[in-house]
Amino acid sequence: MGHAEEAYKLKKVMTIGTVCEITGLSERKVRYYEERQLVSPARTGKGTRKYSFVDIEHLMEIANQIEEGTPTLEIRKDLDRRKRQKSPEKMKKDMIRGQINAHFKNL
Amino acid sequence: MGHAEEAYKLKKVMTIGTVCEITGLSERKVRYYEERQLVSPARTGKGTRKYSFVDIEHLMEIANQIEEGTPTLEIRKDLDRRKRQKSPEKMKKDMIRGQINAHFKNL
DNA sequence: CGTGTAAGGAATTCTGACACG
DNA sequence: CGTGTAAGGAATTCTGACACG
To answer: For testing the chain B interface, which of A15, A23, A52, A59 should be mutated: the one with the most B CBs within 10 Å?
Structure first.
């Protein structure tokens, strides 16, 4: 399917403490960004958050945008747009729409 | 210097709990293999062990060898040999030794 | 809105030791 | 020798809340 070699980056293995140490963010911030749905850590059976290296990269981008004054809601919307662009379902819909448009143009 | 893209695999970020979940080994075993110097987790300021993905790969290899009946001391020696082979200092010494041997061969 | 902090509990990790084989 | 376990303490993480701006 995908890049098996890059699986490390996606695996949710770090606790919030490690994430904070690497990113320099406070636990409060990291948890708040989750509350705002900007990151989605996995959860262990007892509720401990687990983050991946990709999550860390995202968190640092998020932190930058916030420093620039971007509201979390804006960041959220941007993320949604990117996800929608990459979604296979959406791509299919877009293609169909494109075909229909092309069809009517030829009439 | 090296492969910057592979830095994830070397970064010590996981607690022993995560390592045990991924490898299926008990904490006791993982700590014992460290005592036998088969793995070298990093330590946080307060003493918590941190492992990398590479450490996990090594732990699984170690576990396999032990299942096969190999004593930890043997595994240890094997690791030492491999390390010595890859050591730049040792390689330099070997090269010099080789040159000297070649020198005397020509006399 | 974004973030700090004190609060109290639950889960994690650590070490040294005793046990078994 | 390799591993399980109970023991007690220290550090981590979690949630909900009050605070400030």
So the answer is: A15
Reported as a pLDDT band with limits 50, 70 and 90, residue B90 is low
- Chain segment A91-106, per-residue pLDDT in tens: 666 666 666 665 555 4
Partners of B8 on chain A (C-beta within 8 Å) are 8-9, 53
HSE at residue A20, side-chain half, CA atoms within 13 A, is: 13
Which residues in chain A are closer than 8 Å to B11, comparing Cβ atoms? Answer: 53
Q: How far is the CA of A21 from the C1' of C13 (A)?
A: 18
DSSP line for A29-59: HHHHHHHTTS---EE-TT--EEB-HHHHHHH
Total CB pairs under 8 A between chain A and B: 22
pTM of structure: 0.84
d(CA A16, CA A59): 12
Which of helix, strand or coil describes residue A15? coil
pLDDT in tens, B41-71: 999 999 999 999 999 999 999 999 999 999 9
